[in-house]
Write a structure and sequence with these properties.
carotenoid dioxygenase activity; disordered N terminus; metal-binding; Methylamine Dehydrogenase, Chain H; Carotenoid oxygenase
């Protein structure tokens, strides 16, 4: 069986895939003319997307793509037309390195300054790169990176306005996570939407701080919880009553980082043989009745959704048997996908009465970057859209869009293989829609045969039929991370 896995034909070409990690040195601003199919006229708004765009500075490469400077794209849909623009987030580090034309900072995920360990010894000033997510909230466009303050951008031209302390909610140096959730109808605020986000202060005991903000960007609630052990948490989940954190059991040895030998992220070790803590922090003041469960589980970066049914809380997550780390002796472009564990979908059902956990895998195909209907955040939901590998078994790059009906088990699937590589899908409900999957799915893809990127528009109810429109950009956009949608147009 192992021989068959190693020798079967791959759905992708590694050399083509690598080119998706070439830096995009240009900043564009144009109306897209090369479109196959038809853009729905009801689709009006802006798809913002963030991710690393610069992978070397004057010939010195970053060691991990997550250390690349953030590049924001704005893809605007207006009256059946599409406009594209992209700009780099001009963080302090980005501007300093651009002026010096050399790498000046260490990166969290392993990038070191030239000059060996002596030039990195005792240097804890890593670059704050605003490269993970982008969200429009409270009249502000915020580029997010979980270890620092957000950067505010002008939504019209994407010019960087500077660090944003959210009208005094944050202090200089405070972190603001890269995975906020929007509660579509907060029961504490009369059914108004609210944004929920968090920050982590890791250590021997780690402090989780939560922020809840109204649609005008004003603070509604701030509360904290300290948990024993080092926290390496990228995402969380919410329900009407809880914020839910998956505390993977990790150990952290800071000395290789201190002595200039490794990046801080490379010093994290996942302990797969020890239990994971699932922490439920009440959203209702005084936030004191925290519930903690222990479960044997894989490593989790992203959650899909959580919801409550009577005395149970269900949490759907993407789990890995081990952290998908790149071999430190190889370039990340030389990754051997078959040697890494795939992300798979699991449901954890937490019984609040007897403190038990039931866990079940409900999708084994390699997948990442989930999307659901925004009105279903924290609520029971039926449909899930997610990037997936082409083949149903093994690990590989994401090359497809997978839709799951969690009620019937029906799967819809569309693959861009062998030359296409998929990013994170975004689900946009149609105006006056009545069905949960009645909407559009947007997905930015990379075409390795043309070294160009496309924006795909799917009808959410007929994924099997393929895109209803293919928007061909003039250039490539490097593989990115997360994005968001707003019905606002800034053209």
């Amino acid at each position: 069986m192992l021989i068959q896995e190693k020798t079967k034909k791959k759905s992708y070409n590694q050399d083509e895939w690598k080119r998706g990690y070439e830096s995009q040195l240009n900043e564009y601003n144009y109306w897209v003319e090369d479109i196959e199919g038809e853009i729905p006229h009801q689709l009006q708004g802006t798809f913002f997307r963030n991710g690393p765009g610069l992978f070397e500075i004057n010939g010195t490469p970053v060691k991990h793509p997550f250390d690349g400077d953030g590049m924001v794209c704005a893809i605007t849909f207006k009256n059946g037309r599409v406009h594209f623009k992209n700009r780099y987030v001009e963080t302090e580090g980005y501007l300093q390195e651009k002026k010096a034309n050399k790498l000046l900072y260490r990166g969290v995920f392993g990038t070191q300054k030239p000059g060996g360990w002596l030039n990195n010894l005792f240097d804890f000033n890593f670059k704050k790169i605003a490269n993970t997510n982008i969200i429009y909230w409270g009249g502000k466009l915020l580029a997010l990176w979980e270890a620092a303050e957000p950067y505010s951008l002008d939504p019209g031209n994407l010019n960087t306005l500077g660090k944003d302390y959210l009208d005094g909610i944050l202090n200089p140096g405070d972190a603001f996570g890269a995975h906020p959730w929007i509660d579509p109808s907060c029961q504490l605020d009369g059914g108004q939407p609210c944004l929920v986000n968090f920050s982590i202060q890791p250590g021997l005991s780690s402090k989780i701080t939560l922020f809840e903000m109204n649609p005008q960007g004003k603070l509604l609630r701030r509360y904290s919880y300290c948990t024993p052990g080092f926290c390496f948490i990228h995402d969380f989940a919410i329900t009407p009553n809880y914020c839910i954190f998956f505390q993977n059991h990790v150990s952290y040895n800071p000395f290789p980082f201190i002595f200039g030998l490794k990046g801080a992220g490379e010093c994290v070790q996942f302990n797969a043989d020890k239990p994971t803590r699932i922490i439920l922090i009440p959203r209702t003041p005084p936030h004191k009745e925290v519930k903690v469960f222990e479960v044997s589980a894989g490593f989790v970066f992203h959650h899909i959704n959580a919801f409550e049914i009577d005395d149970q809380v269900c949490l759907d997550s993407i789990c890995y048997r081990s952290i998908p780390q790149v071999n430190p002796d190889l370039s990340y472009k030389e990754v051997v996908f078959e040697d890494l564990d795939p992300g798979q979908l699991w449901r954890f059902t937490l019984n609040l009465k007897d403190q038990t956990v039931n866990q079940e895998m409900f999708e084994s195909q390699c997948c990442e970057f989930p999307a659901i209907h925004p009105d279903k955040v924290g609520r029971s939901y039926r449909y899930l859209f997610i990037g997936a590998a082409h083949d149903q078994t093994g690990n590989a790059p994401l090359q497809a869009l997978l839709k799951l009906d969690l009620q019937t088990g029906e799967r819809q699937f569309y693959s861009f293989a062998p030359h296409g590589y998929a990013g994170e899908p975004i689900f946009i409900p149609k105006p006056n829609a009545t069905a949960e999957d009645e909407g559009w799915v947007l997905m930015l893809t990379y075409d390795g045969s043309r070294h160009r990127s496309d924006v795909m528009v799917f009808d959410g109810q007929t994924i099997n039929n393929g895109p209803i429109a293919r928007i061909h950009l003039k250039h490539h956009i490097p593989y990115g991370l997360h994005g968001s949608w707003t019905p606002e147009c800034f053209i």
